[in-house]
Amino acid sequence: MKTVQTIFEDGRHKWLAVVRDPRRPDYLIDTNEYLVVSDDDAILLDPGGSEIFPAVFSAISTQFDPRRISKLFASHQDPDIISSLSMWIEFNPEIRCYVSWLWSSFVPHFGGNRETFVDIPDKGMDIAVGSQRLQAIPAHYLHSSGNFHLYDPKAKILFSGDVGAALLPAGENGVFVENFDRHIRHAEAFHRRWMGSERAKRDWCARVSQLDIEMLCPQHGAIYRGPDVRRFIDWFSQLDVGVIA
Amino acid sequence: MTNGEGRESGRELRRIVRINEEIKRVVKTAFRINLMAMNAIFLAKRAGQSALGFGVLSNELRRFAAELEQQMLALGQATSGSVATVTAMVKEARLVGMLERAQALCEGAGRDALDAALRRHRESALAERREQVATVNRTLSLMIEGTTRLVEMGGVLARSAKIEAAYGGAFSQSLKQVSSDFEATIGEIRQSLDSLGKFRLRELAA
What we know:
The structure holds two protein chains of two kinds.
Chain A: E1 3-10, E2 13-19, E3 33-38, E4 41-45, H1 53-61, E5 69-73, H2 79-82, H3 85-91, E6 96-100, E7 117-120, E8 125-129, E9 132-138, E10 148-152, E11 157-159, H4 180-194, H5 198-209, E12 215-217, E13 224-225, H6 227-238
Chain B: H1 3-47, H2 52-105, H3 111-165, H4 172-197
């Protein structure tokens, strides 16, 4: 089963990170899921692939009733992001899935119907969760052509999807980045290959530099916090992307 | 989905593919009978008065071939429909498998929801699936029975043609050869239908 760790808590406003599954088969990429709870409401960010649904569902159950998750946020359309959609609908047929308008007729191949999806326009939008308002921040072409990150201005956390992802070797299981220089080596090849647009990268760096971020939470690998957030943005802005390393 | 269920559903899909191949084989054979019957009609015309009966039977065999082709096409459509049923079964089995895996791990707040979802799927979805599988099997059985009766009639026509060939005078030998070919070809079709008759969808246990 995956581990659930509270990475932010302020009264009834919480961020839970669902990470590391010791029983995950090695042919599946490891993913992080994040649950943002506000009052009695919750949104699950990049809920994951159908193969890992049992591990994610049961991990969340230890801390929160999964039937109360009213929204899903899919940063983009990949199977490791949202192929578990039909399983979540099983537990809450009213659940809404926020995804780029570009993918709103593709993702239904994983489940759901016309009512399930809320299209996020290219410029982004606010998403209300309980008493909090989260912001869908454009991250198009990083790596998907319709791609969003999610910013919580109160918690000062940016969920950054595949940006900041690292493919960590076995044994490196820390939830947070502890040594930036050592960690970033595991992120470099991934970003060079997956992030296809230099211009999109520059736009994103400029956009997120305006935000007050204390934690940058990727979908794979460890979470950047404190000064490592700035370090990551600077490192990324200098990296040659869209190349086969 | 457990490995057993996965293997079972894969077997069902492979079975449907085999059925479709068998149907294609019969359609091809029906086309061959059609050509053979046409040649037999020309031969009977050349043989003249002594092969009048043979000519009539050859005409009947052409009609038989056309009707057989139509029935096989309808059977092909029915089996294509059963792909949808099997696919739904595969999806259902996969969903139940996921729920069972989650249930084995889950001890928290979601446990009740998992138990309820599994109950729901095992009761209503299983009953619905049984009904769908029974309908598919019933439809296919009826169609195969109808086609088997038609092929029996084709066999009778081929045997009668063989008897008529004996009265074909100078053409008797050629007519005998043609009627033996009819008989052998209809025998092939009968074999294919026997294989199709064994076709039954199995219900995947959740």
